[in-house]
Amino acid sequence: MSNESIDYQGILEEILEEVQPFFGKGKNADYIPVLAEVPGDKFGMAVRTIDGREFSIGDAKESFSIQSISKLFTLMQVLGFSDCDIWSRVGREPSGTAFNSLVQLEYEKGIPRNPFINAGALVITDIINSRSADASRRIDDYYRLLSGNPQNRVDEVVATSERNHGFRNAALANLMCSFGNIHSPIPEVLEVYFRQCALTTSCIDLARAVLPLACAGYSSFAGQQILSAREAKRINALLLTCGLYDAVGSFAYRVGLPAKSGVGGGIVAVLPQHLTVAVWSPELDRYGNSLVGAQALELFTTKTGLSIF
Ligand code: GLN
């Protein structure tokens, strides 16, 4: 089946029907208390093809908390700094442990396994913070540029909730600092990290913002080359191997696309040279990934016959 002949809208409508039995099987994140208040039956999905067609369904325009999906954009931002070797401070291997786990840091001497677990993302945030007087603003501006939506901003209620319950992230930052792998003052790094996770977005915005990963580094919303084609390829490889934490293998098996999830219930996925797709549904599985979202993406690649495999 060629891409042009696929009835994406019809497929999204079928998916909306077919995911209904999966609502109520997962549970909203509650370790950030305000996320537990989001109605669990929300569902949105958006597809953007690289030739500019857009399809969406359900709550695809509604704002939700970007959470760990922000780690993808901070990584893209740092890889855009030409003089920065991040790979001496962060690994490129799947962790096989929970996104907020501390265990590997001890025996790997403060070097996180990859940039998508919390420890790795804190190092990436530290890099941005050490180069910028207003790192938080810089991260927000970058996301607004890529999504083409100036309305995406930090939800202060979510940021406060994260800050008040950020004990584990504080532990990660302190442990890495003890090994010399956090360079800015810890409270600053944590504050920037909590704020980036509290950015608001929608499925439509996410599908637009990750276009550089489908278009060899080019963003039609920013109207510029954001990354080299080589960096885009590399990030897609990291997403495939590390984007869904310790569920990454079974997600690749079920869906077959590089993707990034967040505990707000969003998942964004990329089919290089073809399309991007974003889904949102707040109830999570036990790995912290959207349960209905993963199901919807599995249906999407099965019905369209499109995946990287
Ligand atoms: N803000 C969350 C945290 O730091 C992000 C985690 C996630 O989305 N997996 O714990």
Automatic annotation (TrEMBL):
Please indicate if the UniProt record lists Cell inner membrane as a keyword: no
SUPFAM superfamilies for the chain: beta-lactamase/transpeptidase-like
* A single MF term (Gene Ontology): glutaminase activity
Describe the subunit structure. Homotetramer.
Pfam families membership? Glutaminase (PF04960)
What reaction does this enzyme carry out catalytically? L-glutamine + H2O = L-glutamate + NH4(+)
Similarity-based family = Belongs to the glutaminase family.
Binding residues annotated for substrate, in chain numbering: 68, 118, 162, 169, 193, 245, 263
The organism named in the record is Kiloniella laminariae
What is the name of this protein? Glutaminase
Cite the EC number. 3.5.1.2
